[in-house]
Amino acid sequence: MNKITKGTKTTDKHDDFINRLNNCKLLGVMDKIYKKEYGMSAKKYLLRIPSRKEAERMVRTLEYAPASITDMFQRRLDCKCSKKKTRHHPVWTPNIPVPAIKKNPEFFIEEGSRTGGFHANFPKDAGAGRLLYITMKPSEFLNYAFAGELVEKRSEDEVGTTELIVKHKQKRILKCKPQDAPFLKLDLIKCQFVYHDGRHRAVAADELGVKEIPVFIEHDVPINEEQTRCLKDRKLWKKESARSPDLRHFGEV
Known about the structure:
Elements (H helix, E strand, L loop, with lengths): L5 H18 L1 H13 L4 H7 L3 H12 L3 H12 L21 E2 L6 E2 L12 H6 L3 E6 L1 H8 L17 H12 L8 E5 L4 E6 L1 H10 L4 E7 L5 H8 L21
Helix pairs in contact: 2-5, 7-9, 8-9
């Protein structure tokens, strides 16, 4: 019997990771968009920049994302988000959260960060195994964002929501401009969200009739069964009891 050397094991693990990169449908569509629009590659970024463990966790986050997110990116790739008014509801056009690079590793891009403002730190949080990539109705996101008193607040929370901001977001959606995914932070002990960003985008999407939006959920690594159950069962997540908050009463946002 031939002995398996350490070098062989390393090669096998590398080959397994390459296979995961090539078999992840969501990553594949993202990579095609990067190549088409920027001449860059997210797969090369995952192979060259983060540690292997971080890269594997990022890929796992994409692998666990629902197929509907892949469909959103596929529509963007195929340019099927019609800018003309039809009887169909508008759809969400997503930003790519995974960075990409060219041949020179020093030249890379993180598409979401180019829009300015707050956005989920995908390399950091997904790389640590602390990020979910899911979808929900815009009204559902707003119910979660309004549930309870926020533990963590930003200066932007004191900025009032205005018609102008919402209309600006609506124009971006209707023009099929890529949007950062709204963001929630889940406290696994309370099973409640304590931080959010993206209510203007969610309001705009809700009023336009967008059926589904992508959402990032940041969380700590579960340390017991109860926290694991909270993370996996969204029925346990606390939210407003009302069907949807009054979207026009945003004095505190």
